[in-house]
Amino acid sequence: MFEGSKKAAPLVTRLIAVAAVPVLSLLALSLTPHPTDSDASAAYVEPAEPAAGDVTVLASEVFLTNASAQLLSRESGDLELAAGQSVTVGYQDSLVSAVSQEETVAELLARLEIQPSPLEMVSVSSQEDGVTITIDSELVFYENVSSVEEHEVIYQYNSQKPDWYESVIQEGSNGEYTEVYEVIYQDGAETSRHLVDVVDSDPVPTIIEKGTIANFANNGDKVTNISANADGSGTLTLENGEVLTYREARTMRGTAYTAGEGKVGTVTATGTTVRPGVVAVDRNTLPLGTKVYVVSNDGAYTYGFAIAEDTGVRGNIIDLYMNSYDECIQFGVRDCTVYILD
Fold first, then answer.
1. Rounded CA gap, 21 and 176, in Å?
2. Parallel, antiparallel or unpaired: strands 317-321 and 243-257
3. Phi, psi of 136 (to 5 degrees)
4. pTM metric for this prediction
5. pLDDT tens track for 267-284
């Protein structure tokens, strides 16, 4: 049985921007006035992981994205270079080399007596071998506009597991619809925007298996403490801290059986599949569906938690299902304490 526990959330729209220059993956767009020309505009582009301290964002209108090209913030800033960096400036078909001081990009260009025109833009690339600054009148980058659809959480209920049991059997992921636009800036202004690609992925639900049996545990769950009351009832404390209650502790003759021996099949009298954690009983002695915890009185064997789902014995006998004939032989016949759970 499946049940969706959460409706798909409203679509969340986000803006993504990435430079078209191959070595660049972090985009910053600034409208900072040039130190000598208040009408100038500049576009700064920075990689996702520059060497520590190489480039620092300062103040003015700056658009920043992360390594996945997702827009992180729009804040005030210029770009400051760390001292001692090798810098190459490409401008008007020539290259100028320099070593940076602790200064902004604008201050470096002023020191080199390079003055971009009001219509030119500046791109900054921080690489392992230094910083490259390119001044041009055109910049091409890609802007991704995405809508995210959150995935559902679906519960798959298991009637053979305790109600506190939960296990993730499939990790989910959100769906995403993305339109990719090529954007061209020329002379400090956006001049072109074209839809060049669409990427669409469906959400994948998270599926969680959840038990439904109250006051029960899995066959192999360890009991760390058994406490008895004066009236014969008591509690069983599990290793995980869960506390189960029992109404009676009864001594029964324990035997063992497995499928494939004699006329024993793989389907119980209640229609379930035989497995460790299934016991056969006389329904007049112990009703079918009764939840029990079984240990041998000699202290040598703990069968664990089980449900009376099968028949085939008579009287005060509890027949424990085991995976192999050898296990049955090893167990033999033993007196057992059967804790009958509420």
1. 25
2. parallel
3. -150, 165
4. 0.57
5. 999 999 999 999 999 999
Taking Cα atoms as reference points, which of 155, 176, 150, 177 lies closest to residue 166? Answer: 155
Residue 186: Cβ-neighbour burial (10 angstroms; 0-12, 13-18, 19+): middle
Partner residues linked to 75 by β-bridges: 62
The rounded radius of gyration (Å) of the Cα atoms in the chain is 36
110's enclosing H/E stretch is helix 105-111
List the chain domain ranges. Answer: 1-214, 218-341
The SS3 assignment for 91 reads strand
Domain 1-214: give its CATH code: 2.20.230.10
Report the alpha-carbon distance of residue 291 to residue 73 in Å, rounded.
58
**pLDDT tens-digit series, residues 166-191:** 999 999 999 999 998 877 767 656 78
pLDDT per position as a tens digit, 214-240: 999 999 999 999 999 999 999 999 999
Stated length of the chain? 342
Task: Answer for the pair 78, 60: CB distance below 8 angstroms, yes or no.
Answer: yes
In this predicted model, what pLDDT tens digit does every residue of 314-340 receive, in sequence order? 999 999 999 999 999 999 999 999 999
In tens, the pLDDT along 134-163 reads: 787 776 666 778 899 999 999 999 998 999
Written as one string, the DSSP assignment of 216-283 is ---TTPPEEEEEE-TTS-EEEEETTS-EEEEEEEEEEEEEEE-TTSTT--SB-TTSPBP-TTEEEE-T
CA quadruple 237, 243, 247, 252: dihedral positive or negative? negative
Copy the structure tokens of residue 147.
């809508």
* Reported CATH class of domain 218-341: mainly beta
Contact partners, residue 227, CB within 8 Å, separation at least 6: 234, 235, 237
Sign of CA dihedral 301, 304, 306, 308: positive
Q: Across-strand partners of 51?
A: none
Tokens of residue 278, six digits: 């299934």
CA distance 62 to 306: 65
